[in-house]
Amino acid sequence: MLSRVNTITFNGLQILDVDLQVQITSGLPNFIIVGLPDKAIAESKERVRAALQSLGLELPAKRIVINLAPADLLKEGSHFDLPIALGILAVMNVIPSNSLNNRLVLGELGLDGAILPVNGVLPVAMHAKKQKQGLICPQASGSEAAWAELNDIIAAPSLLTIINHLQNKNILPSPQKPLPQPNNSFLDMADVKGQESAKKALEVAAAGAHNLLMIGPPGSGKSMLAARLPGILPPLTSDEALETSMIHSIAGELKNGQICFERPFRAPHHSASTPALIGGGRKAQPGDISLAHNGVLFLDELPEFNRPTLEALRQPLENGNVSISRVNAHTTYPARFQLIAAMNPCRCGHLGETALECKRAPLCAQEYQAKISGPLLDRIDIQIEVPAVSPWELADVKKGESSAQIRSRVIEARNFQAERLKKLGINNFFSNSELKGSLLEEVATTDNEAQHLLITFAEQNKLSARAYHRTLRLARTIADLQKETKILKMHIAEALSYRRSLSSGSK
């Protein structure tokens, strides 16, 4: 007596098919799971046994063997509970054996027979659609699976309801996609007093998805400005929202099956470990940089982060993905994020203020700023100072521009970029910060004065090739905000003004 159930295992975002085979034969009563199961799968037999007992069913007093093929692939996760239980029920003729054909099955079982939610249902549903298969999953994950628009989704709350459905006694309704909820929790840029130059830099960063570093004394508003960046960014496209949500689903952070069309904003504490930020651990889980994919990663108190952790950001910032290699796992996650960082000019935070700076200045500033390597700074397009706000500005009751007003200009600039790319035969939009090679040369055309200014500055300040091209991309964004097709001298001049060199006391 043999039954087969289609299920999966994860390797990062990659979905690997698993052929779960159930065999019940004569012999001493035993329940064996083979095929490199992890601890959670090895414990499945107890959950399956208890769940069946809750329905009044006893496992046959025979030899039960569960084989997870291919046998040389490591299997992990509690989502194997439901396929094991349904495979056993098929062998026992409780459900029709053909009812599991061409369907992927995943779900965790409670001791009372309830089917509990599991991580990763959205990418599994997308995989099932690609394979032209149906899906059996927990009811709590059904709305998440519905985004894949499968024709055959069975989302059951318990083992009993799925048995009745497969026996055609009580058909379960198909799950529905939840309606997207508007995000009304954005902080408004109008709340920020003063800091007009920093607001302008933030607008440019949002329009071109440029990396930004803010340097200033404590209390000058760096964190306040960064927290308001999501409110001026354009919403995610449908493809971006689906791609981002699949990562959040794998990490178990997709709540109530609701896909968010607003860009993610991650702000890890400076004590975060390298695996927490980059990704890793025993199961090579996605880190904050992948959870910030298509959104913003905010690193406050940048020099306080562990030096190796910061250096690990260099490759993802350049390539838009991160490769995680472990003894038992090797996977790649997308990590195309916008880096926003903030730091004090020195440890005491008051460099250049005679009455407040510490006695070790400027040496303390040199030591503090040396924690940020040159290659990492080279990947940050905008580096600006955020000075302290004067009491007169704080007392001013007049409101500045709202986030909605700034956001409308950012969206117009991005639409301007998209139209330019379409004229070049490129339909997949990507931001100015991602322009490379011949495409950058074609898009970022300058007049003679602008080119001369950039070349002169690059020679005098020993700009690297990367910094040169990043300045050109930044100037392209500034021109886009002004609806200019060609980069002019004033655009280059503004882009160069955003490249503050870190040094003790330099302004």
Would you identify the CATH architecture of the largest domain?
Answer: 3-Layer(aba) Sandwich
- How confident is the prediction overall: mean pLDDT? 91
Number of strands: 18
What is the overall number of helices? 21
Number of domains: 3
Work out the oligomeric state of the chains in this entry: single chain
Q: Whole-number radius of gyration?
A: 28 Å
Q: Gap between N and C termini, in Å?
A: 79 Å
Please give a structural write-up.
By secondary structure, this protein is of the alpha/beta class. Helix 2 (44-54) packs across helix 3 (81-91) and helix 7 packs across helix 20. Strand 8, helix 5 and strand 9 (153-156) form a beta-alpha-beta unit. The model is unreliable at 503-507 (pLDDT under 50). The strands form six sheets. It has a five-stranded parallel sheet. The chain folds into three domains: 2-166, 2-Layer Sandwich (Ribosomal Protein S5, domain 2), CATH 3.30.230.10; 191-396, 3-Layer(aba) Sandwich (Rossmann fold); 406-497, no CATH class. It is built from 21 helices and 18 strands. Helix content is 36%, strand content 17%. The termini are far apart. The longest helix is centred in the C-terminal third of the chain and has 21 residues, at 403-423.
